[in-house]
């Protein structure tokens, strides 16, 4: 038996080779996890969204149905996307601000062709917590290039199982991309914060509404300098790479996780209301001169929310816009479950744009370290700098949670023969089950 390092080297090479040429390089975590868990069983495919047509100042916010996506019963392991131009070159955020993209499955009636009207589509949202909003399976914004979406082993987001589709229905995928072209914009931060005055929009039924999604809707246009008013439209695409393992691959022994999205604007529990009330976005006011004098210019927003099922958090990441300085999630007793902080760029190039949130730090708690009881009231916190007013900001938490019972079943479900072990100084080492399978 050669030492383990000789096994891993060809596997790592294979992991690189199996990715399509346009896919971003797998992160270190992907490689380590992939080599440990399922090696070449990890599959990867890169797709392009339909084109978005954007001229200087304009907004595109469309839902595309039946988009390209891996088919079959599988476990999703990651979803990475970025905006590219027609030549495939990454587009920096200071040219086109990626407000958000969302990916969500839905069901269509197979016999009626699936093309049909909205009435023939059945939504299939994630497991909670907001009802009617934030139902996506994956979704990020400007931070997309530098935020890990890797679902740690042995977990996966189960899709295409068929078992939970209503009779006669099939699964499809929808994609929403909200992008704002800020080339030549009179006020780039103002356009990305969807300030209504810059879009010449007034929201009649909400007098105090100064900015947010209701002012940067599809086809709205933000104010641009005279040289850009007649600027030509260009076509952009969301290029996205999905990684997965096939569910039928017993050696992968995937444990399914539930997806929950928490929102700091949901005050239903605090207000004693029965139904969640996720407003998705909020406004940060400029701090008072007294607070500024005291050097205390942080806008702290806090709420409480309950997960529909308890379990073990295996992945968590916050979502904030520019001005954000940190999010955190706490248990009922105050214990920290995850703290996720924005990463700001400091250059010009795509992925490192100065003044923009180009990534969010993520949490991968050790198994059992971030356990949530059923009915436990979690505290969601979102901090922004209050140095000036900002509209349309967000404070969300995206969680992957494994049910307690399923976790306990994972070991007996693994039908692999027991692995031979070696005592290799300084640590003992066992042949992983998947590798044993490959050798037979
Ligand atoms: C906004 O309204 C002002 C005044 O009515 C007008 O001059 C300007 O062209 C409008 N801007 C846009 C982007 O529509
Ligand atoms: C949020 O701000 C408060 C007050 O400054 C601070 O105590 C807390 O640690 C901050 N939390 C995060 C996650 O940034």
UniProtKB/TrEMBL annotation:
Pfam families per UniProt: SURNod19
Top-rank taxon, per record: Eukaryota
Keywords from the UniProt entry: Signal
Transmembrane region(s): none
Cited InterPro entries: Stress_up-reg_Nod19
Signal sequence bounds: 1-19
Protein name stated in the entry: MtN19-like protein
């Amino acid at each position: 038996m050669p030492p383990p390092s000789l096994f891993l080297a060809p596997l790592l090479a294979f992991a690189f080779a199996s990715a399509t040429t346009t896919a971003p390089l797998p992160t270190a975590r992907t490689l380590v996890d992939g080599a440990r868990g399922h090696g070449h069983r990890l599959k990867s495919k890169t797709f392009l969204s339909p084109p978005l047509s954007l001229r200087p100042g304009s907004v595109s916010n469309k839902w595309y149905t039946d988009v390209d996506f891996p088919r079959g019963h599988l476990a999703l392991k990651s979803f990475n996307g970025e905006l590219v131009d027609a030549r495939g070159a990454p587009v920096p955020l200071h040219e086109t601000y990626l407000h958000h993209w969302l990916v969500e499955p839905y069901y269509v009636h197979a016999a009626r062709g699936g093309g049909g009207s909205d009435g023939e589509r059945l939504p299939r949202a994630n497991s909670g917590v907001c009802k009617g909003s934030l139902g996506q399976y994956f979704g990020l914004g400007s931070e997309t290039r530098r935020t890990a979406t890797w679902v740690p082993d042995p977990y996966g987001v189960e899709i295409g199982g068929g078992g939970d589709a209503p009779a006669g229905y099939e699964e499809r995928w929808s994609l929403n991309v909200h992008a704002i072209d800020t080339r030549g914009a009179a006020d780039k931060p103002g356009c990305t914060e969807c300030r209504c005055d810059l879009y010449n929009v007034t929201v009649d039924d909400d007098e105090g509404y100064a900015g947010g999604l209701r002012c940067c809707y599809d086809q709205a246009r933000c104010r641009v300098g005279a040289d850009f008013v007649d600027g030509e439209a260009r076509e952009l695409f969301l290029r996205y790479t999905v990684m997965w393992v096939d569910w039928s691959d017993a050696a992968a022994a995937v444990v399914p996780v539930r997806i929950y999205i928490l929102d700091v604007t949901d005050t239903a529990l605090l207000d004693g209301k029965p139904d969640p009330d996720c407003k998705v976005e909020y406004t940060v006011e400029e701090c008072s001169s007294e607070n500024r004098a005291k050097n205390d210019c942080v806008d702290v927003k806090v709420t409480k929310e309950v997960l529909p099922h308890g379990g073990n958090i295996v992945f968590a990441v916050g979502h904030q816009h520019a001005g954000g300085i940190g999010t955190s999630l706490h248990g009922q007793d105050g214990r920290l479950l995850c703290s996720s902080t924005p990463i700001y760029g400091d250059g010009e190039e795509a992925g490192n744009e100065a003044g923009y949130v180009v990534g969010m730090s993520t949490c991968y708690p050790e198994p059992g370290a971030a356990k949530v009881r059923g009915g436990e009231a979690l505290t969601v916190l979102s901090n922004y700098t209050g140095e000036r007013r900002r509209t349309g900001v967000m404070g969300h938490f995206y969680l992957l949670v494994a049910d307690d019972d399923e976790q306990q079943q994972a070991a007996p479900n693994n039908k692999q023969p027991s692995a031979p072990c070696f005592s290799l100084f300084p640590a003992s080492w066992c042949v992983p089950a998947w590798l044993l399978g490959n050798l037979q």
